[in-house]
Design goal:
Helix content: 25-40%
Oligomer: single chain
Low-confidence stretches: none
Strand order of the largest sheet: 2-3-4-5-1-6
Strand content: 35-45%
Structural class: alpha+beta
Mean pLDDT: 91
Radius of gyration: 12 Å
Shape: globular
Distance between the termini: 8 Å
Number of strands: 6
Length: 86
């Protein structure tokens, strides 16, 4: 589990997040579900949940999804405007 802060609106942060996870290059992780402020990434039974709320982005993973969690956290940290806080 990790937390990131961002200094943009939730809508701008979600758009930056989606752009950061688009494409078919090496290391890209699929967005399985898009519920507005909540996303499920990974593959079936290997999921990472990402939530956006009031300037904070939180990630958490299922048991097997923890293998993808560090990759997701790194990709989020590399998006302009996101800063890891926990």
């Amino acid at each position: 589990m990790a937390k990131f802060s961002y200094s943009m609106t939730d809508a701008e942060a979600i758009l930056a997040f989606k752009k950061g996870f688009m494409g078919a290059g090496v290391g890209n992780i699929a967005i399985l579900k898009d519920k507005g402020n909540e996303f499920v990434l990974g593959a079936p039974m290997m999921t990472v949940n990402v939530k956006f709320k009031d300037g904070i982005c939180e990630t958490k993973a299922s048991l097997i999804g923890k293998t993808l969690l560090s990759t997701v956290n790194t990709k989020i940290e590399l998006i302009d405007g996101f800063k890891k806080i926990g």
